[in-house]
Amino acid sequence: MEVDITLRVDGEDRPVRVDTRTTLLDALRDRLGVVAPKKGCDHGQCGSCTVLLEGRRIVSCLTFAVSHDGAEVTTAAGLADGGRLHPVQQAFLDHDGFQCGFCTPGQICSAVGVLDELERGWPSHATRDLTAPVQAGRAEISERMSGNLCRCGAYTNIVDAIEQVAK
Question: The 2Fe-2S ferredoxin-type domain covers which part of the protein (predicted)?
Fold first, then answer.
């Protein structure tokens, strides 16, 4: 069964007809031509398809598009403000936080989500003191980014980039 939905992708309303079993990732890539989120494992284990849904990071291969009719979806391509890069994008460049680049859009969206979580004071598994303000240290950032895999092993540079923006 196919239905008509509208997704607000990177600030633009995009109507699309999808089968009710179509994932958000497939709707973005195959139906709308939005190629920033990548299809890696297609099982929610690698994070290459991470996007921001209503401002929160999700792996788009594990959610149905029809569940998000009318939702705001931001990809790594939609983070820049005109010709000015988002601070996370700039930090990734500053710290060489990518190598082959396949995981980079998902890493960047996840990093933006991590920074929002830290700003809101949400604890993670690595948070030692749940009564104190959450600190954006390497262990905290690494734990929060653990769902985004990088075959090239650029993890140190990715954490450096996120730390730069967190400061």
Answer: 3-79
Choosing from 36, 55, 78, the residue where a domain stops is 78
Tell whether 92 and 59 lie within a shared domain: no
Q: What is the mean pLDDT of residues 6-20?
A: 98
Could you tell me which residues come within 8 angstroms of residue 138 by beta carbon, excluding any fewer than 6 positions away? 159, 163
Q: Where are the beta strands (DSSP E) in 27-161?
A: 50-53, 56-59, 72-74
Tell me the pairing of strands 50-53 and 56-59.
antiparallel
Indicate the pTM of the whole model: 0.95
Whose tokens are 């598994």? That residue is 125
What average pLDDT does this structure show over 133-137? 88
Q: What is the pLDDT of residue 132?
A: 86
What burial class does residue 7 get, using C-beta atoms within 10 Å of its C-beta: 0-12 exposed, 13-18 middle, 19+ buried?
buried
Same domain, 13 and 38: yes
Residue 133: domain span: 87-166
Distance CA 86, CA 47 (A): 20
CA 111 – CA 109 distance, rounded (Å): 5
CA-CA distance, 135 to 144, in Å (whole number)? 12
Please count the structural domains in the chain.
2
Tell how strand 72-74 and strand 2-9 pair up.
parallel
